[in-house]
Design goal:
alpha/beta, six-stranded parallel β-sheet, five-stranded parallel β-sheet, 10% strand
Length: 893
């Protein structure tokens, strides 16, 4: 029961009225009717609004724990032995980083993040994180990347990692094997499941993973379970747009299988996250406003008696007044300072803590370091229904490092500590570490039968096994007896179609296939109609966890907007970041769920690798499989859209991603061949690779597939159309790709008819594949000097090809230049370097100098350079071709 203040305001009657209401409310609560009390408050609020009374708004609750002590679930484990386990993990994590930096100066590593997160992790490992088994899919856990040393240290105690591996932390190439700096499935494919250290990516990936889990359940591809998706992130990390950008999706989809744990140690690398504010309150407002269940774990059990005394709320009020910068300072100051600056502002506060010594005041724990508080929050989170949960846990960065780094701005970079700090660390956490072990910073693991080891192993056994752990559980798809793509190899018989239309036809056929149809996951960021995919709405439906609660405005049309709970299309709205996160969830399902889902994510090509390159890099690290389709691709094929939409970059941006196979096909049969090979490689042979295929919106007649061209299509180039007069003295080899290949074919005709030049035309489907083959071949030759040199595929193709070399692409000139070193002669490259324009295709190709006229001119110019023709002929060709020599340079205009 609240106590009335001793000092009354001037309006005594008003105060009496207020306290009558408060006492009435208290009476309901004391009768054990909290639910009724909540309903009363809501009804009074509704009544006030209906009466035109202004209702005070706040998105925040007081700066106290969400779970009241009376509602706190009891701790389920042995707190003392778990403390010993946690201390052992802390020591080995510290030793790992310190030893690594003693051997190799500045090899790096982070001590402080795990220092703050240890209790958050250990409570999860001992009681909540369920492993994947043959009977249960298990929980998915995105672990805070900078806390990796603590995860390794625990795995060492579990017997999963050796002391030699810990010794080689951040030195992966050493004998005996080492450990990657952060979570990287590509580097440790049996340990880590997801990369999490690129700030802000794990939250959005976790949200779409949780939604994809529901998608699989609603479509009947996996059983309905209570498996959870956990995401551990830092408070500073939430400044990244991806971190909070999708939180409304999670509440809109009622993803109660999703739990965020935000490690609120109040610090970034350089200083406070919100020195003049309150990051916990800020995040609470954001998540509550988005519809999440918010649990604040701010104060440890030591504070409970103080809050019991806080009958008039003066303590809660005072704690909410202190800004985060001051809270950080309190960590490094004395108990006397805390008494003066926290409690000294009010006699009632000083009275509350008069029984506590300065040392006791200084040692009052934060909620994120109290296993009881963390356990209660986790239990509440896993049992909560109807919405996702976020736990905002107050911690101290560098917890345990003392004056060497605890709570200090330099703590993120702490990698070396002196012996006094190590000794203090061991004493603080009750470790019986010998002096020689302190001096050497030795790893320490108790015997297998020690109570700590037995306890942690038993906990993991109850939870199904170890976490993290990655296993590929899917079975390869069986061979397909009849090609799904045969009809796309025979041409369109004069009918004009775009490669995008051809792809949609292939997608439609795959969706109908009895073997793989159910595994296809079409993903689109609100551009399905742009890509001609609206026919799929009716065929397989758009996924909606609620079905369709309305009659669509186009219900009476054949291709109406059909949402369904078992819908197959993931229509993500205008979010490439969300769409690629769904792609990652679907592309890794072969390991996460043991299901060979085959994602096809189609997007405006300009808004793919350029916009979400970091997430595509994460997809590669995750060992994703699937297809990225860059629609409306090329700088000159997308008429009218202009600078922001016209893509001449994506194939260059695809180069750095090692596992991404990038293709720029021009014809339907090329697209079909590439997709068929991709399905075979990824889902039958089990290769950890994925594909980027650009498709255009320009319609033209599709030719039939030339004989013996399949291998060349996949290897990167093949001869599409030989010259009709192979005996001509003037010869050329022309290379075209994607949108510009047809311009190359036109140039072939002009060269032969007007200038007597016999040119062979090559379709270059993948400069990246040619480049990779070239550097791999060069490497082999470098390392095998006495063996017969291998020949790059480009060189092999052009070994006997006569004449000058000219390449034209709708992308940067850098693409053909990449492979020029393996060509027998100089290559003249034409490309679309520069900003796009709002114009027609014809005008754009003239502007960027990649149309048939400029390809013809470039060929004649190369022949002139070789002395085959006179300069006067080239000058005449400029006039004949109506080329404006005074036109603006597209690179600089």
């Amino acid at each position: 029961m609240a106590v009335r203040p001793e000092v009354l305001p001037s309006d005594v009657d008003e105060l009496e009225e207020i306290w009558e209401w408060i006492e009435s409310f208290d009476a309901v609560v004391e009768q054990g009717k909290p639910g009724l009390a909540s309903k009363i408050l809501q009804e009074i609020r509704n009544r006030a609004l209906a009466s035109g009374v202004e209702v005070p708004f706040t998105a925040n609750t007081p700066y106290v724990n969400t779970i009241h002590l009376s509602q706190q679930a009891p701790f389920a484990g042995d707190q003392e032995i778990e403390r010993k386990i946690k201390s052992l993990v802390r020591w080995n994590a510290l030793a790992m980083v310190v030893r690594a930096n003693r051997v190799e100066h500045n090899i790096g590593g982070h001590i402080s993040t795990y220092g703050s997160a240890a209790t958050l992790f250990e409570v999860g490992f001992n009681h909540f994180f369920r492993a994947r088994t043959s009977e249960f899919e298990g929980d998915t856990v995105y672990l805070q990347g900078h806390a990796a040393p603590g995860v390794y240290a625990r795995a060492f105690l579990e017997g999963r990692l050796t002391a030699q591996q810990l010794e080689n932390f951040r030195r992966e190439l050493k004998p005996g094997g080492g450990l990657s700096s952060y979570p990287h499935p590509w580097l440790m494919p049996e340990f880590w499941e997801f990369p999490t250290v690129s700030m802000g990516l794990s939250p959005i990936m976790a949200i779409y993973q949780a939604r994809f889990n529901r998608y699989l359940e609603d479509r009947g591809l996996k059983p309905v379970t209570d498996a959870k998706v956990w995401a551990f992130l830092g408070d500073g990390e939430t400044d990244e747009p991806e971190a909070l950008g999708a939180i409304t999706l999670a509440s809109r989809e009622h993803l109660d299988n999703l739990i965020f744990v935000v490690n609120c140690n109040l610090q970034r690398l350089d200083g406070p996250v919100r020195g003049n504010g309150h990051i916990i309150q800020e995040l609470e407002a954001a998540f509550r406003g988005a519809g999440w269940n918010v649990l604040k774990v701010i104060w440890g059990s030591d504070w409970d008696p103080l809050f019991e005394k806080d009958v008039d709320g003066v303590l809660a009020k005072r704690l909410g007044e202190i800004v985060d910068g001051e809270y950080q300072k309190l960590i490094v100051e004395s108990g006397a300072y805390i008494r003066e600056h926290v409690f000294g502002s009010d006699p009632r506060l000083l009275k509350m803590v008069e029984h506590l010594s300065d040392e006791q005041l200084h040692n009052l724990r934060q909620g994120g370091h109290d296993p009881k508080k963390v356990f209660a929050a986790y239990k509440e989170a896993v049992e909560h229904k109807g919405s996702p949960t976020v736990i905002l846990a107050r911690t101290i960065k560098g917890y345990g490092l003392g004056e060497a780094g605890e709570g200090r701005n330099v703590t993120h970079q702490q990698k070396k500590v002196d012996e006094d700090t190590l000794r203090h660390f061991g004493e603080r956490f009750g470790l019986k570490i010998r002096e020689d072990q302190i001096e050497q910073v030795s790893f320490f693991r108790p015997p297998e039968k020690a109570p700590e080891i037995q306890y942690m192993q038993e906990c993991r056994k109850k939870l199904g096994g170890y976490v993290p752990q990655r296993r590929v559980r899917s079975k390869p798809l069986p061979p397909h007896e009849e090609s799904l793509f045969t009809e796309f190899l025979t041409g369109s018989e004069g009918r004009e179609v775009s490669t995008t239309m051809a792809f949609v036809g292939m997608l439609r056929k795959m969706l109908r296939d009895p073997e793989i149809g159910k595994l296809i996951v079409p993903i689109v960021p609100d551009e399905a109609r742009t890509f001609g995919m609206e026919s799929l709405f009716r065929l397989v439906g758009i996924y909606s966890s609620q079905g369709q609660l309305y009659e669509p405005v186009d219900m009476n049309t054949l291709l109406y907007y059909k949402e369904a709970k078992d819908g197959q299309i993931l229509e993500e709205g205008i979010t490439e970041a969300g769409s690629i996160s769904s792609f990652i969830a679907a592309g890794s399902a072969y390991a996460t769920h043991g299901i060979n889902t085959i994602p096809f994510f189609i997007f405006y090509s300009m808004f793919g690798l350029q916009r979400v390159a970091d997430l595509i890099w994460a997809a590669a690290d995750t060992r994703c499989r699937g297809f990225l389709l860059g629609g409306t691709a090329g700088r000159t094929t997308l008429a009218g859209e202009g600078l922001q939409h016209q893509d001449g970059n994506s194939h260059v941006l695809a180069l750095p991603i090692p596992t991404l196979r990038a293709y720029d096909p021009a014809f339907a049969y090329e697209v079909a061949t590439i997709i068929e090979d991709g399905i075979d490689r990824m889902y039958r042979k089990g290769e950890s690779t994925f594909y980027y295929i650009t498709v255009m919106n320009e319609p033209y007649a599709m030719p039939p597939m030339p004989a013996a061209s399949r291998d060349g299509i996949l290897k990167g180039m093949y001869k599409l159309k030989p010259a009709s007069n192979g005996k001509s003295k003037l010869r050329a080899q022309l290379f075209g790709s994607g949108a510009i290949l047809r311009e190359v074919l036109k140039a072939q005709e002009i060269l032969e008819e007007k200038y007597g030049v016999a040119a062979d035309v090559w379709s270059v489907t993948s400069y990246k594949t040619l480049y990779s083959d070239g550097i791999e071949t060069d490497r082999w030759n470098l390392l095998h000097p006495v063996e017969k040199p291998r020949v790059p595929y480009v060189s092999e193709c052009l070994a006997d090809a006569p004449g000058v070399l000219v390449a034209a692409t709708d992308y940067l000139k850098a693409l053909p230049n990449l492979v020029s070193q393996w060509m027998p002669r100089r290559v003249a490259s034409l490309g679309t370097d520069g900003f796009g324009r709002s114009e027609s295709r014809e005008s754009l190709r003239n502007f960027f100098e990649v149309d048939a006229r400029f390809i013809t001119l470039a060929t004649l110019h190369e022949l002139m350079r070789e002395g085959k023709i006179q300069a006067s002929l080239v000058q005449q060709a400029i006039k004949d071709l109506d080329i404006d020599v005074g036109k603006a340079d597209p690179l600089t205009t």
